């Protein structure tokens, strides 16, 4: 029986990004304006993982201090829960969103107590594609929704390709094949 490739691929992709992120954290670096995106397409399943410092999405990274900041966190989470607004997939691929998960320490954070930490948003998206061979590009629309994102370090893996690139507001498409 054939072992599914996706868990191995995701571990490899995410492991390399986690290793790089861990190295940054160990040295105390926190790069505002930069996010990461990992994409894996196996058979009929497309998985996308997005990670960004909270400051890129809501303008701060501490626990919300007032109603305005709590509203900003809630709005960012709501936008991240709408994969159709974040990613454009070829109509011919017939992809349907099957799962979305959004996490951040800010979503359950108590009122700010003066503590300063570097909070992130993490989101994962799963799609089921009836015609995955028609999925040649992935258009990333995060820049239009979150002005604090200046670039996205993107990596992807499909049955026929593996690569990485830096996405910007001017260059926001990943070529998957």
- SSE sequence, one letter per element: HEEHHHEEEEHEEE
Head-to-tail CA distance between termini: 27 Å
User: What characterizes the major β-sheet?
Assistant: 6 strands, mixed
Write down how many β-strands occur, each being a DSSP E stretch of 2 or more residues: 9
Which segments are poorly predicted (pLDDT under 50) over 5 or more consecutive residues?
1-29
SS-based class: alpha+beta
Strand content: 25-35%
What value does the average pLDDT take? 84
**Basic shape:** elongated
The overall number of domains is 1
By DSSP (H or I, 4+ residues per run), the number of helices equals 5
Structural account:
With 177 residues, the chain is of the alpha+beta class. The protein has one domain. 27% of the residues lie in helices and 34% in strands. The protein contains five helices and nine strands, in the order αββαααββββαβββ. It has a six-stranded mixed β-sheet. Strands 3-6-9 form a three-stranded antiparallel β-sheet. Strand 7 and strand 8 form a beta hairpin. The longest helix has 21 residues, at 6-26. The two termini are 27 Å apart. Mean pLDDT is 84; it is low at 1-29.
């Amino acid at each position: 029986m054939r072992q599914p490739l996706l868990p191995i691929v995701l571990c490899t992709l995410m492991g390399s990004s986690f290793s790089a992120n861990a190295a940054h954290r160990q040295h105390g670096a926190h790069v505002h304006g930069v996010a990461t995106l990992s994409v894996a397409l196996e058979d009929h399943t497309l998985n996308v993982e997005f990670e960004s410092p909270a400051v890129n999405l809501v303008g701060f990274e501490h626990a919300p201090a007032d109603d305005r900041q709590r509203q900003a966190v809630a709005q960012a989470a709501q936008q991240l829960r709408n994969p159709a607004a974040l990613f454009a997939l070829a109509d011919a691929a017939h992809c349907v969103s099957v799962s979305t998960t959004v996490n951040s320490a800010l979503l359950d954070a108590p009122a700010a107590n003066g503590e300063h930490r570097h909070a992130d948003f993490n989101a994962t998206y799963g799609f089921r594609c009836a015609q995955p061979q028609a999925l040649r590009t992935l258009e990333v629309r995060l820049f239009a929704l979150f002005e604090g994102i200046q670039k996205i370090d993107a990596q992807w893996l499909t049955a026929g390709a593996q690569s990485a690139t830096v996405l910007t507001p001017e260059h926001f498409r990943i070529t998957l094949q």
